[in-house]
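Data deposition worksheet. Section B asks for the primary sequence of the deposited chain exactly as it was used as input, without tags or linkers unless they were present during the calculation. Section C holds the resulting structure in token form. Section D is free text for depositor observations; keep each observation to a single sentence. Incomplete worksheets are returned to the depositor.
Section A, Depositor: J.P.
Section B:
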Amino acid sequence: MKRFDELKSLVESLEGDFQKFYDKKNQAAGTRVRKGMQQLKNISQTIRVEVQEIKNKG
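Section C:
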């Protein structure tokens, strides 16, 4: 559950940058959004691997 909490926290932290990018067309915010989305992808992949390992053990 620690990783899930990490995932939720990251999504919440990106909300402001999403608003700045889409509403105000702030290019720097877009860079932060892309970086954050890459982090989300990496965390998601780690969770997928963990779930698969636990599933295969049980």
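Section D:
The longest helix spans residues 27-57.
The chain has a mean pLDDT of 96.
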